[in-house]
Amino acid sequence: MKKHYQSKIFLLLVSCMLFTLAGAGEFAGKDDPLPEFDCLIEPGEIIDVGSPAPGVIEKVFVDRGDYVVLGEPLSKLDSSVEQATLELARTRASSTVEIELSRENAEFSKRLHIRNRALFSKSAISSHEMDRLATEQTVAEMYQQEAENKNKIAQMEYRRAQEVVKRKTIFSPIHGVVTEKYKSAGEYVENEPLLRVVQLDPLRVEVIVAADYWGQLTPGQKARVAPEFNGLDVQEAMIERIDPVVDSASGTFRVQLALPNPGHQIAAGLKCRLAFMQRLERLDTERYGRFSLRKKRFSDDEAIGKVVDAPVEIPSHISQTMVENTQETPLESIKDYEVLSRFLQRHEQVKTYTKRLKAEEIRDFYVRQAGGGKGYIVALGIYQRLDNALDRIYRLQSLGFQVALKPRYRKCRNCQSAGISGKKVVTDELRLAAEKQSSAAGDSSRINDFSDSFTLIKVAP
């Protein structure tokens, strides 16, 4: 039932996304690069609470609509037999008569052996009698050890009986509200759920995003959420996780956000509209190669430029001789840069590559087919700033990964008259960026080995 419910939600979100992908809405900021999306507000957790042990329900303490806290008793099964077993185990565990009796026998045998040893030294008793007394002492000590072991076993059986009785009471696994009551007192339960408990704070917002926007969202980024109910103000949610796999059939991926809901003012199940917010923290994460948020961020004294989509222009300090021999073809302006793995022909190569990424705690990637379906490429991020893309490449190379850089283009209306080729300017821009980063790092080898540092892929827009 739960899987069917989640499947319906996914199909609904995909359908809504297809109708609303074209333009930005009224409350999305004009600087936001992403349009508005339809979304769905769901409970933070949906748990069908079952019984850890089979039995007859003695009592249900809650009903639909009741709020519960973590660890609160929800229901109790009949435990009369288990209670009797518990009392028997308690009596056995508390009894120490056998231990005391065996201890006294062992002490008596020890004293008797000591007294007869003095008589044996005077030849008053035979060696056979001394052997018999020594054996009796050893046997008495073994009986004492056996009695102590039996008492330890009784203590463990008592604790086990306590756990069996405890399992007859079902407790709430979360703070939440009861939404379904499947069983009542007197019914037998074994593998079926008794109750459904959902978490209302925080709520979960599910949104389906087109694969074209892969790499533009990061965990921790905020978004504005407008529930369809007019009485509610626009809320602020935060990205919790991003699916690392793109659905090939729909060309989309799923994003999950956490929406605080103190006082439970927002009802789960509402449709909503969502606009992702752009902020400096997003650029910090982009600068550091889309690694985990636990990695280093920008310090306050580091300059962060605004990310804009602009046509590529020739920098003033590039001489005309660098471009004078190039073919005069229209230039496409760069939209962004995509960091890719090398071409992987076999599925085993993909598994090895992604396993190495995960070993380095790099999980923001996805695999797609390439070469007309004859192989695969691992996508490792999309960046609007070249220095951010280069930083990602150098970090991956330092870990031993072979990567490539692919600029993604759009047409530039004012570039044809310049008489320069797009690929030449792109290459010069990459070299300048590499020189800048190498100078900052004090590593001139990056400039000399620039052509071998990564592959530049030039593709048609």
Topology:
Elements: H1 2-20, E1 37-42, E2 45-50, E3 55-60, E4 67-68, E5 73-77, H2 80-94, H3 97-121, H4 127-166, E6 169-171, E7 176-181, E8 188-189, E9 193-199, E10 203-210, E11 222-227, E12 235-242, E13 252-259, E14 271-276, H5 280-287, E15 332-341, H6 347-359, E16 366-370, E17 375-383, H7 386-398, E18 403-411, H8 422-441, H9 445-448, H10 450-453, E19 455-456
Parallel strand pairs: 18-19
Antiparallel strand pairs: 1-10, 1-14, 2-9, 3-5, 3-8, 4-7, 5-6, 7-9, 10-13, 11-12, 11-14, 12-13, 15-17, 15-18, 16-17
Helix pairs in contact: 2-4, 3-4, 7-8
What does this structure look like?
This protein is an alpha+beta fold. It folds into four domains: about 1-45 and about 200-280, Efflux pump adaptor protein, beta barrel domain (Elongation Factor Tu (Ef-tu), domain 3), CATH 2.40.30; about 50-80 and about 170-195, Beta Barrel (OB fold (Dihydrolipoamide Acetyltransferase, E2P)); about 80-165; about 320-455, Alpha-Beta Plaits. The chain contains ten helices and 19 strands. It has helices spanning about 1-20, 80-95, 95-120, 125-165, 280-285, 345-360, 385-400, 420-440, 445-450, 450-455, and strands at about 35-40, 45-50, 55-60, 65-70, 75, 170, 175-180, 190, 195-200, 205-210, 220-225, 235-240, 250-260, 270-275, 330-340, 365-370, 375-385, 405-410, 455. The protein has a six-stranded antiparallel beta barrel with strand order 1-10-13-12-11-14. The radius of gyration is 36 Å and the shape is elongated. The chain starts with a helix and ends in a 5-residue tail after the last strand.
